[in-house]
Amino acid sequence: LEPGVLDGAASGQDAVLSALGIQRASVIPWARVVSPPDLTERVARQMVEVLPRHGVRRVVAISAGGVGASRGRTNALLRGVIPSRNAGVAYRDLERMEATLAASDLDWMAVRPTTLTNGLPTGRARRVERYGLLSRIARADVAAFMLDAIEADAPFADRTPMIAG
Description:
alpha/beta, 5-stranded mixed beta sheet
């Protein structure tokens, strides 16, 4: 969020991959938020302003299953948790990030993973229509999906794929 940092990072790049997200005091979704509650939105606003100056048009950012239109395709129990307390702070921020990117001229994608897990990549990342109660994906598989997306030649047709492993 410091002025000039993104300008320096974007110089000479072909694309941007963003794995930023709101940080909490612990991994519990209801834990206290310790980063700015509008972190991803603010960075997206900077990207929309800075990237075109450097000829960068392509952005792939991490979002979350249950954000935006995918909320209606999320298990009812999870759908009830999303807006609650501090978990909702991150979802609202991601929705504003996606809206900022959508209003831009950038070629962007916001990947919406289901519940994240640790561990080795499985190679099974795939687009899904529903976010079930047991839907999971390894962080390593999300990273691989995002890297594959950013290296694709065609403009993004599906800007907000929900993925699971």
